[in-house]
Amino acid sequence: MIKKKELFRIFIFFLFIILLILNCNKEKEVSFYYWKTNFQLSEKESDALKHFKTKEIYLRFFDVDKKEKDNPIPLGVIGKISIPADTSIIPVVYITNHTFHHFTKADAEALAKKVFSKIDFIAKENSIPYNEIQIDCDWSDSTRDLYFAFLEKLKTISSKTISTTIRLHQVKYFNRTGIPPVDKYVLMFYNMGKLGKNESNSIYNSTDAAKYIQSLNNYPRKLDIALPIFGWVIHKRAGVIQELLKDFDLQTLQDKGILKSTDNPNLFLVTKSTLTGGKYFREEDELQLERISKEELLNAADLLHQHAKNLNSKIIFFDLHESNFLNYPYEILDQVCSRIF
Amino acid sequence: MKFWIKFVVVFFSLFLDFSLLPCGGDGSDYFDHDFFIKEVIFNKTELEEYNNYTYLFDSIDLFKEQNLVEWEKFFEKKIERDIIQFWLYGSKLAEIDEAIFYLENKTPPTIENVKIRGKSFFKYPKEAKAFFYYVGFARRNEVFTTKKSNYDYWGEEHRKEIIPNKETVNLQNQIKGGISLYQNEKFQFIKERYIFQLVRSYYLNAEYEKSIQFWKEHFGEIRLTDSMKWRTLGYVAASYTKQKRIGEANYIYSLLYTNSPNQKDSAYSSFQPMEDADWVESLKLTKSKDEKIILWYLFGKRFDIPKAMNEIYLLNPNSKYLNRLLIYGIKRLSYPVFGFGIRYWDYENLEMKKIIPLNDKALIKNVNSIANQDKVKNKFGWKIAAAYLNYLSMNFKEGDQFLESAFKLKGNVEVFEKQYQITSLLGKLLQMETIDEKSEMTILPEMKFLFSKDKNISEDLNLNYSKNWIRGLLGVFYARKGELEKAEWIQRGTIKNRFSNLENTKRMIDFLEDNAHSPLIQVMLQNPTHSYNDYLLLLGIRYAQVEDLENSLKVFEKIKDSYWEHKNIYYSDIPFMKDPFQIKIKDSYKFDYNNKIRLPKYNHKTFIQEMIRLKKEAESNTNKSSKNYFKLANAFYNMNYFGTGGFYYNPIHCYNWYYGWAYLSDPILFPEFSSTIALKYYLLARDNSNSKEFKAKMTFMAAKCEQNEWYLTKDYKPSHRSWSDEKKQDAKDFQPGKYFQELRDIYSDTKYHSEIIKECSYYARYWAKKSEL
């Protein structure tokens, strides 16, 4: 006969196993950011949505910025939107931190009204129902209070779920940077370094990722996770960044025979001035390719897996662009998802 | 159009995303945050041309003024401008149609606007009919020709009122009708406008070839109104772009840029060479050297300044566009160098670079070459520009050579002298790693010039940025050497929290009262950011804050009357609207601007005098002790941020006062946030009184002091201070202490206690909680 005590131990053991299984089988949800000014999905992009059974797209509606002390204005407002079937839209607004400089609380609240009214107008004009608004802003210590006032006001007047992006430094130093007064949070697991430093990758580097990820345990909120599948070319002239070229294919210049390799495999020199696709590259300009490698992306997934208990089961890839699926085939992204959860 | 209607003509946003483009105005892209004075290169007209740009973001209708002038001329000024404006920009379709019915059939108008504002037109039936038909046609086109701008750009609904709905107008029919109207039109002036409307309509209907064709067939007919020609060409260029005939499009944009001032900026925004081949094609289409120069100028601004400089120089070394490109290059490339100023708060960071050198070798090479060839008229301008750019690139030898050449050419031209002096100073400063007696003497001549009291120099806005930058740099140099008073005098704020305490403030006064200063410091002593009296005022304040009232008074007495009467008024008159010896249950954090009762009885001096008197009296006369200690306590309480404050407002630490402790990383360092002395005196007042009512009041005031101290000393993180989740439970921020407990336990039977419950919500909650228990 099994004693009562042993029975209890067995019960606890099975309970543990069941909980473990339940935890491992979290219903994963894959979403994408869409960051272009025209919402028109290519066949490949639509196919990706189907493959990942994506229900929600985080669609950038507009940016907000201001010049010096001028009033903030919306920039790069999205054009016509037609939503794919069975997909809902979460409007995203990117606000520069600078917007909140020289602001008062009243300004921040007024901005919230304007932002909401603009979102609502675009949504209504395009017949888009939405229940959530996401605000993307890399706020700083000096703008924190005003940004938070903005978020609070946005929440009050919109009565929508409000989510925000959180950068790694804001997770690590949350005691100082504060926790935005919103409903949901998305950890941007990228943009880790300083832009344009030849020796490092500003999108993702595993050393910094490993360093920062430790602080995830202490963050008092659960987070959705955003991962990078984009790349860009940094165009520099005389040491000064001219432009970030998204979706730019270096092959165009290689085909013209005007790119010289350097010791750094991701850094190229322009050997002859040329105009191509409306971009001008001057002799001696530097072009630096930045992209997270597949291995690094999987490594990021492994790191996140160690902290999965602090994460919600939603993964948002940045961004939905057909060229990104050439560099990161579905199977890689599937692996990323299954490795995290 | 009503003033708040924010539209731009479709032309401006045909195929470009403005957010990606720089502004078109030559001078609008970059601020003058550098050491180069544009007047060295430009004469007055050229400067105006350079600075002038159309702020597209705010443009309502760039052609409104021009249209009104042209229509006024058409009606030979017999019709008032306001009336024309109403019909062109404010009238509804129904009103226009009714005016036409009246003119055609004499149907009496029923709409008030038509009756009133149509009257003056009806005297000229032929012109009026042509006018109203045209306006009706144009108004129907508006639904296609205007679009809501992305820039105001928060509002969306404004325009609906007068623009017809898309559903009610068919562009194809508009074109048909427009052709017929054009063919039947007898007035040449209006006929030309139909050509414009039709070229635009074809474009908007995506019939690009027809748009171009119509233009080609009819451009010869536009003879009367030049503006119509250029506006129409704008759509022709846009049609070429749509057809990917980029070379032709850009050539037209360059013509618009130089010939149509209203279209200058939109043309620049639209100018967009795509491939080497289309650029070559644009150049081939030019019919003169001048046209080529414009194309190169635009190319230079958009893509490659040195290359364009070279090309323009070869075409005409004295082209004004070469000069413009030089200034544009200087301003644009200086921006990353100076744009962020000196980070003087990092003075302890020895690794900090002073500036990021300009590193555009191609630009330096071409500017040097042009300056050396002496083919340009403004030889001084180019030599000094070369010196300036070489210095910024840390090519000091070349910089010195050009500076020497410039010296020989500067003559007696005032602006040349200024530029020479600041360039010379810049060259020297950029070579300095630190400051010592020798380097002070090296820069002394230029510093004397730049910081001279001569009005031409001291009030020259052009020099302000460079002066501030120099202050920042010298401040850092002195701070790194440990000469902190010099650093702070030259650039206030170089050292964080420098004057939060008495000792450092005394050191500054000692420094200022010392007569043995180097010649450079003497120059700077004549150029204060804050005055000796400002620092005296602060010292007096700091003495009072540590209860050293005698010394405080001595210091205030040193301040000259003129300072109190004039300079200090801005900072200190508001607080004296309140009696510093009075107190209220509720703290008044902000000044009460509505209270206009001025109490001239107290200024800093008389206030301290009264405090000294009260203190002496309290110590010697026991009958008055309690009352006087209470007044003193109020005075100390009101001195601090939580009290009515403000009479201790001082230019040097006014930011602390204005923003309060929440904005300081170390508020505890600043005595203006401390309530400890006030607390001491409230307790003294209480101990010296026999009245329970009075004791209750003193206990409440002690509780307030205790609470204020708690705000500072508790680990009161900024996230708790305002709008994070915790803020919603504001009451949690409050922590009842020893004196609330005493109020509750000892003084609950007093009248004052009832008053507190009414007035102070914190205590009311605390009391209610007790009652629940």
Describe this structure in words.
The complex is a heterodimer of chains A (341) and B (773). Chain A has 341 residues and is an alpha/beta fold. Chain A is 34% helix and 26% strand. Chain A contains 11 helices and 16 strands. The longest helix of chain A has 21 residues, at 4-24. Chain A is globular and about 85 Å long. Chain B has a two-stranded antiparallel sheet with strand order 1-2. In chain B, helix 15 (305-315) runs parallel beside helix 17, helix 20 (414-431) runs antiparallel to helix 21 and helix 34 packs antiparallel against helix 35. The interface between A and B is large, with 39 and 37 residues.
List the helices and strands and how they pair.
The complex is a heterodimer of chains A (341) and B (773).
Chain A: H1 4-24, E1 29-34, H2 43-51, E2 56-65, E3 73-75, E4 88-95, H3 105-125, E5 132-136, H4 144-158, E6 161-166, H5 168-172, H6 174-177, E7 184-188, H7 206-213, E8 223-228, E9 231-237, E10 240-246, H8 251-255, E11 259-261, E12 267-270, E13 274-276, E14 279-281, E15 286-291, H9 294-305, E16 311-318, H10 322-327, H11 330-340
Chain B: E1 7-9, H1 44-51, H2 64-74, H3 81-90, H4 93-105, H5 112-122, H6 125-145, E2 146-148, H7 171-184, H8 188-204, H9 208-218, H10 226-242, H11 246-259, H12 264-270, H13 276-285, H14 289-302, H15 305-315, H16 320-338, H17 361-373, H18 379-392, H19 396-409, H20 414-431, H21 437-450, H22 455-458, H23 461-480, H24 484-490, H25 502-513, H26 519-525, H27 532-545, H28 549-558, H29 561-567, H30 569-572, H31 604-620, H32 622-639, H33 654-659, H34 676-687, H35 692-713, H36 718-721, H37 738-746, H38 751-759, H39 761-772
Antiparallel strand pairs in B: 1-2
